[in-house]
Amino acid sequence: MNRFTIKGLTVNGTGPLDLELQSGDCICLSGPSGSGKSLTLRAIADLDPHEGELAIDDTVSTHMPAPQWRRRVGLLTAESQWWADTVAEHFPSGDGVHLSQMGFDDAALGWNVSRLSTGEKQRLALARLLANEPEVLLLDEPTAALDKENVAQVEALIEQYRQEHGAAVLWVSHDPEQIRRVSQRHLRLRDGHWEESP
Amino acid sequence: MSVISLTPLDLALTAVLILILAGLSLLLRLGVAGQLLIAAVRTVVQLILIGMVLTTVFEFAKLQWVALITILMLLIAGREVVARQQYRLAGWWGFGVGTISMFISTFTVTILALLVIIGTDPWYQPQYAIPLLGMMLGNTMNGIALGLDRLTSAAREQRAIIEARLLLGQSWREAVRDIRRQSMRTGMIPIINAMAAAGVVSLPGMMTGQILAGSPPIEAVKYQILIMFMITAGTGFGTMAAVWLAARRLFDDRHRLRLERLR
After folding, report:
1. How far is CA A170 from the centre of its chain?
2. A79: domain range?
3. What ipTM does this complex have?
4. Which residue in A62, A68, A128 is closest to B168 by CB distance?
5. Closest by alpha carbon to A26, among A194, A155, A171, A175?
């Protein structure tokens, strides 16, 4: 992928959002709670109906089956969800390609989900998402529930993936320090409209 | 063995039992005496009416009359399926999913049984067609209502999980697979249990009725086995169809979970 384009994206009265991300770009989005940041990311992942156009290079989202779109444009939520007993059952092919990069060995695949800590869960959720090798990463406050050590670890893992795979990243964050650390550009949502933030 | 015909006096004597029960309920302030009496009156009126209708239909044995009655039975069962769900599909779908599934499964199995297995002449002979379909509808209705109720409740409760699976690139079928299986199982378990307990824990109503009406027990048993298998097949196929259709309706063409389609 060279270019990820968002044209006139409007969700529930929030927007329009017009953005163009090149491979390897990281843009942070912020705004008050309940202002529509998460809804915007969900719409970009095509999880909710929306107005506007989304495209990877010249291929618009509607010209691609939705599951394929969501594998290429991956969304990580603040709270991860688990539906089976063991970690392995949550990985698309049953093997965790990115596990070692996340600081786990293969034994982690056999772990019981109910015994994972919040930090482990979030890192495994990231590994699970990266197993699809998404070209665009949508991160919805991925470190909101983590302690300082885990925040640094997750940030480093995302940075490494961005550099190695040239992924474009859209990162919703409340933390001004984090925004400064990870992004090249910052948009703020004010009264339903997106504004460039210094 | 001949049938001992019941006189109005016989029925009046059993009605006295209901009156005693109502009196006792009143005495104990259970708050059900009124309901009990109304339900008893409804039983008498509804059954006498259906008895009169069936007498007329049996006498004329015309296909259009049988069709009319069976369609009416189907529509009432369809309404009952909707009424038994806490969250149902909005609009026409709420009624349509259950009714279409019941139509496909119960009518197919009943017609198959009439044509191929029992071999009545004409095939729609109302003495066979209407009671058979009635029993099929009653049970299939239960299975479908249970299955759909489980599906829609689980979809609401497990929304976050379904969407997490969609976000990982799963199709709607994969994302709702576990819930769909549980829902189909929920719809089928009662009839499987009924088969397992038949004759040991309970004597099925139809068989008991036939024996009381003078049939040799072995004949009654053969019919009961036939009915049990028909009901199980009808309930199973109907529940599978209804759960599949409703699950499909919970998602749109872009594989998005659309819970606003429930009300």
Report:
1. 7
2. 3-197
3. 0.96
4. A128
5. A171
